[in-house]
Amino acid sequence: MGSLNVERLISQLMGPSLLAIVVTAVVALSIPLLLHLFIYRSNSSTTLPSFLLIGPSSSGKTSLLTLFERGDSATTHTSQAPLSVEVSLPISKTASSRYRSINDPSLQTHKLFLLIDTPGHGKLRYHALDNVTKPQNLKGIIFVVDAANMSSGVTGQDTQGLREAAEYLHDILLLLQKRSTESNTSKAPKEMPVLVAANKMDLFTALPAPLVKTALEAEITNVRNSRSKGLLDSGIGMGDTDLEEEKGWLGDGGEGKFELSQMEEVNVSVTVAGGNVIGSEGADVKNWWDWIGDNL
After folding, report:
1. How many other CB atoms are there within 10 angstroms of residue 113's CB atom?
2. What is the mean pLDDT of the chain?
3. Which candidate, 214, 216, 199, 172, places its Cα nearest to that of 273?
4. Nearest to residue 174, comparing CAs of 263, 274, 67, 239?
5. Residue 174: CA atoms inside 13 Å, Cβ hemisphere, count?
6. 9-37 burial, b for 16+ CB within 10 Å, e for fewer?
7. Is the N or C terminus of the chain more exposed, i.e. has fewer CB atoms within 10 Å?
8. What is the pTM of this model?
9. Is the model's pLDDT at 151 over the cut of 50?
């Protein structure tokens, strides 16, 4: 009796009956819907690409974060904890879009990424260091400096701003260098681009981007030399062959003048570009947007 009912149901489904038509329609509509839900959930669970925003206090990091997120700057306060925001970048600013027609509708869409702001105070910089050593889909690092506070002291001006920025950048670059020198595999680490965003270019006392680069390279050389001398004066590492090898110093064996281009040997590309988050004529962050688009 049961087998007869099953056969009757099958024959009804296979025949041109109303039930067969309804079942077929439900199946035909359900499959695309289920596939859409599956793909949507898979994409939403994927970690967004991220950029790490670091630099000394009062360099303009949080103002830049607000500008990128909202399209307008606002009054900010010194950061005490990391802050992540979702930012959209027009595809027209990505590297691949330069080969597309201006009428391509995909240029009107946006690409999303996370911008992670970290405190610049010395005691809170471990947040930034943790993000460098344990990156989550990290596409690049934006190191913000105050270009109006980059004096080398040749005219008797205060050099504290330059020294603080150079020490912080030195430590970040050394961490990135160790990815290669202390790697347990022969495979080279993934390239990590670094943007030195020379902020506050609207101010009269701001150094142009090329001079910011030169000042940082010279001061990082001084930082490296002073730390090396401190170790030698204390007797640490005396007679140690490791001291004569790479020593853990930044750059080409820790000798001679340091240049940012030396970081290319460990798959770290450093770019210095100027701009300003706030200004009498508005913000000018085009160079920074372009750099993000090229690395997203």
Report:
1. 22
2. 77
3. 199
4. 263
5. 18
6. eeeeeeeeeeeeeeeeeeeeeeeeeeeee
7. N
8. 0.74
9. yes
